[in-house]
Design goal:
By secondary structure, the protein is of the alpha/beta class. It is about 30% helix and about 20% strand. The protein has three domains: about 290 residues, TIM Barrel; about 200 residues, Rossmann fold (3-Layer(aba) Sandwich); about 60 residues, Golgi alpha-mannosidase II (Immunoglobulin-like). Strands 5-4-3-2-1-9-8-7-6 form a nine-stranded parallel beta sheet. A seven-stranded mixed beta sheet has the order 12-11-13-14-21-20-19.
C-alpha cells in the first residue's frame, strides 16, 4: 500500500467542492434528520450549522416512511425544501437512498421479507433493518425507491455525494430464512460447482454429514451441538456477498444518473461483535471509504482503540483519504453505562481520525432526538441548546478544522511514503477464529491484534493494516497476530516477503487451517513451521486468568505450547508448568529476512521489551527519538509538505522537541512545542526538514 504515487481520490475531489475560493476544506457535519422536527426548526438548524462551520450533512438515511408513505406513492415536497434550504446556505448534501429501514407498511404487506434468527424465530419490524437481504420483495422496493431519489436529485447543486443504505448487516445479518437458504445454495453451487467438491471442502465425512442433493443444504441453523465449521464459515462469506449484491444493485441505479461519489458506512472492528461483512472485499466497490466509530466509554484506553480503527479504515482505503461518517459528540445510548465525554475529548477524538487519514468528520447526529430509541444519544446540537459544553466544543472544532484545510489530500506516512510496520487482519481468519470448539475461549484474534497495535502505539510507531495476500514489500516489519486461517496464496506471499528481506512476526494459533478451515497437518504452526524454524507438538492453553513466567519478556497468558526449535534461535522459553523449556519467542533467518514466533500472549511490559528487539533488528524507528508517554504523534505528507499531529492524552502539560508552523495557534515554533494537558497541535514543516 503506497498511496503517494496514486492520483487524487474522490475524497480529495469532494473536499475541493466543500471549500471556498478554490481551497479545499475538511468535511464537517452530521446526519441531519429534519423529518423528526417541525418545519419551523429547519431555519434555525441551518443558521446554527453555519455558525458551527458545518459544510456537509447526510440527509434521508432513515426517511423511507416519509418519502414513500404508501407503496408506490412518493412524497418529495418536504425533502425538496430541506435540500433547497441547505443549498441556499452553502451546505452540501450527502444524500441517502433511504433503504436502510423499510417502513411498517412494507413489512406488514410482505411478512416473508423479514429476517429469521438462527433458532428459527422470525424477527419482527418495529426497530430498523427489518428485512432479509435475500428477499426479492425488499430488493424490488429498494430499487424503486433508489430510482425515484436518484432521478429527482441527481442534478441538484447541493448534492455532492451518495450515501447508500446504512451500516449494512448491523441488525439483520446473518439471516437464516428460507430465502437465505435458497440464496446460500446458489452461492455454494457457484463456488464449488458440484457436490463432490463441496463435500470435500466441508469435510462431511465427519459425523455422517455427506450431502447427496443441493436441496439438502441449509444455513447453519441451531442444531443439537456444533454445526459444521466450514458450513458456518461459508455462510458468513455468503451473507457478506448477499448484502454486497444489494449495495451493488442500488449503486448501479445511482451511477446511471450521477457521477458523484458513492459510499456506505463501515463499522470498523466492531469490537466484541460479529462483523457482518468482509470490508476488504467491499472497499473495492466504494468511491469513498467511510467508517463509523464510537468509543467504548469504560475502556481506559479507548483512544488507542480509536487509533486502531482509524488505521484499519485507512487500510481499506488503500492509504488514500477516507471519511469518518459517524462518531459522537459525547455519550451514546446503547452501552451499559453511557458515559459523557470529558471536556476536550471530542476534539482529541476527531483529530486522531484526521491524523490517521480522514479528510472528513461527521457525527450522529445534528440535533439530539426528542423521541425514539436514540433520544439519549448526543448530537451536535444537544437537548439543552447552545449554552452548553457540547455546542461550544462543536464550534471550536469547526474553527479547528477550518485551520486544517491544507492537510486534505495528504496521506499518512513520512516523506518517503513509508509507514514501516503493517499488521495483518484477514476477514476470513477472523471469522474462522471466532467459530466454536476451539482450544481456548480466551484466544481472540481481535484482542491479540489490539495488544500488538497498542504496543506500537505506546512506542510512537504508526502501523498500517493489510491482508496476508497484499504486497508487503514496503514494510520493514509485519505482524501476523493469531492469523488462524490462511490461504495458500497468503502462505506463498508471506514466505516471499521474508525471503526478500522482510521481518515477519507470527503469534500463536496462526497458520493452523487452510481456506476451508481444514488443519494443515504435520506440525504446528502449519503454514509457518518451516518459515519459523520451529516444531510445535501440542497446544497447552492456560486456565482462565492464569499467567506463566518466561525466561525473558516477562510473563505469558492465555496460551502456551509444547514444542522445540528446529533451526530457530530461542530468545525466550517457558519457565514453568507442563511445557517448561518450550520456546516462547524465537527468531529465525529465512532467505534474506527474519521470522519470529511468539507462542503465548505477552503482557504489556514483555511486549514492550520484545518490540525493542524487533524494531532494532528491522531498523524501525518511532516518530520521536524519545516518545513522550501519553502523547500520540502521527505524520501526514503531501508533495514536499509534512504535517505532524501531536495529541496529548495526559492530564498534564508536556514539552516536545518540534520546529515549524503550528496551524491551530498560527505560531512558529523554534524547537520546542509546549502542549497543554488534553490539547492538540498540528505542525507544518517541509518534508526535507521532517526529522524531529
Amino acid at each position: 500500500m503506497n498511496p503517494h504515487n496514486k492520483s487524487a481520490s474522490p475524497m480529495t475531489a469532494l473536499t475541493r467542492r466543500l471549500g471556498s475560493s478554490g481551497q479545499p476544506a475538511i468535511a464537517f457535519g452530521a446526519d441531519y434528520n429534519p423529518e423528526q422536527w417541525p418545519e419551523e426548526t429547519w431555519a434555525e438548524d441551518v443558521r446554527l450549522m453555519r455558525e458551527a462551520g458545518v459544510n456537509l450533512v447526510s440527509v434521508g438515511i432513515f426517511s423511507w416512511a416519509r418519502i414513500e408513505p404508501r407503496e408506490g406513492t412518493y412524497v418529495f415536497d418536504w425533502l425538496d425544501r430541506v435540500i433547497d434550504l441547505l443549498h441556499a446556505h452553502g451546505i452540501k448534501v450527502d444524500l441517502a437512498n433511504a433503504t436502510a429501514s423499510p417502513p411498517p407498511w412494507f413489512s406488514h404487506t410482505y411478512p416473508q421479507s423479514l429476517p429469521v434468527r438462527e433458532d428459527g424465530v422470525k424477527i419482527s419490524y418495529g426497530s430498523r433493518q427489518a428485512f432479509a437481504a435475500s428477499s426479492p420483495e425488499y430488493r424490488r422496493a429498494a430499487a424503486a425507491l433508489t430510482e425515484q431519489i436518484a432521478n429527482r436529485y441527481a442534478s441538484h447543486p447541493a448534492v455532492v455525494m451518495w450515501h447508500i443504505h446504512n451500516e449494512y448487516g448491523c441488525h439483520n445479518q446473518p439471516d437464516y430464512s428460507d430465502g437465505a437458504a435458497a440464496g446460500f445454495r446458489g452461492w455454494l453451487h457457484r463456488r464449488y460447482g458440484n457436490l463432490e467438491a463441496l463435500n470435500a471442502a466441508w469435510g462431511t465425512a465427519f459425523w455422517s454429514q455427506r450431502y447427496d442433493s443441493w436441496d439438502e443444504i441449509i444455513p447453519p441453523r441451531t442444531s443439537g451441538t456444533w454445526v459444521n465449521p466450514t458450513q458456518q464459515l461459508d455462510f458468513a462469506r455468503y451473507s457478506s456477498d448477499e448484502l454486497l449484491e444489494c449495495y451493488m444493485a442500488e449503486a448501479a441505479i445511482i451511477r446511471r444518473q450521477s457521477t458523484h461519489p458513492l459510499t456506505t458506512n463501515f463499522m470498523g472492528f466492531n469490537m466484541g461483535l460479529h462483523q457482518p461483512v468482509d470490508y476488504w472485499r467491499w472497499s473495492q466497490h466504494m468511491d469513498i471509504v467511510s467508517n463509523d466509530h464510537y468509543l467504548r466509554a469504560e475502556d481506559s484506553r479507548s483512544f488507542q482503540d480509536l487509533a486502531m480503527a482509524a488505521d484499519l479504515t485507512r487500510g481499506w482505503a488503500a492509504g488514500k483519504p477516507w471519511l469518518l461518517m459517524e462518531h459522537s459528540t459525547s455519550a451514546v445510548n446503547w452501552q451499559p453505562r453511557n458515559i459523557a465525554k470529558a471536556p476536550g475529548e471530542m476534539l482529541r477524538n476527531t483529530l486522531q481520525h484526521i491524523a490517521r487519514g480522514a479528510d472528513g468528520t461527521l457525527f450522529f447526529q445534528w440535533r439530539a432526538s426528542k423521541a425514539g430509541a436514540e433520544k439519549f444519544h448526543s448530537g451536535m446540537l444537544p437537548h439543552t441548546g447552545t449554552d452548553t459544553k457540547i455546542w461550544r466544543e462543536v464550534c471550536e472544532l469547526g474553527r479547528t478544522l477550518q485551520a486544517l484545510g491544507e492537510v486534505t489530500g495528504s496521506v499518512v506516512g513520512g516523506p518517503d511514503g513509508a509507514v514501516e510496520v503493517a499488521i495483518l487482519h484477514d476477514t476470513d481468519a477472523r471469522w474462522a477464529s471466532e467459530l466454536d470448539s476451539h482450544p481456548s475461549v480466551d484466544a481472540s484474534s481481535l484482542h491479540e491484534t489490539r495488544r500488538w497495535h497498542d504496543a506500537f502505539y505506546r512506542r510512537g510507531i504508526t502501523t498500517d493494516f493489510c491482508q496476508s495476500t497484499d504486497d508487503l514489500s514496503q514494510y520493514k516489519l509485519v505482524i501476523a497476530p493469531m492469523l488462524y486461517l490462511l490461504t495458500d496464496e497468503g502462505v506463498r506471499n508471506l514466505h516471499r516477503y521474508v525471503e526478500s528481506g522482510g521481518s515477519l512476526v507470527v503469534t500463536y494459533f496462526s497458520g493452523i487451517a487452510d481456506e476451508n478451515d481444514h488443519i494443515r497437518l504435520g506440525s504446528y504452526p502449519g503454514a509457518f513451521s518451516g518459515l519459523l524454524g520451529v516444531h510445535i507438538e501440542e497446544f497447552f492453553p492456560l486456565p482462565e486468568a492464569q499467567s506463566i513466567e518466561l525466561s525473558r519478556f516477562g510473563a505469558g497468558s492465555i496460551w502456551t505450547e509444547l514444542g522445540r526449535p528446529t533451526v530457530a534461535e530461542v530468545l525466550s522459553t517457558v519457565a514453568g508448568g507442563p511445557v517448561q523449556g518450550s520456546p516462547a519467542v524465537t527468531r529465525n533467518t529465512y532467505g534474506d529476512g527474519r521470522s519470529y514466533y511468539v507462542s503465548t500472549s505477552l503482557q504489556v511490559e514483555g511486549m514492550d521489551e520484545l518490540l525493542q528487539v524487533l524494531c532494532a533488528d528491522a531498523g524501525v524507528s518511532p516518530m520521536l527519538a524519545d516518545p513522550a508517554p501519553g502523547v500520540e504523534v502521527v505524520r501526514r505528507c503531501k508533495d514536499e509538505q509534512t504535517w505532524t499531529f501531536f495529541i496529548n492524552h495526559n492530564d498534564e502539560d508536556v514539552r516536545i522537541p518540534a520546529a515549524g508552523h503550528e496551524l491551530l495557534t498560527s505560531q512558529d515554533l523554534q524547537g520546542t512545542l509546549h502542549l497543554k494537558a488534553g490539547s492538540v497541535a498540528v505542525v507544518r514543516l517541509p518534508a526535507a526538514a521532517s526529522e524531529l
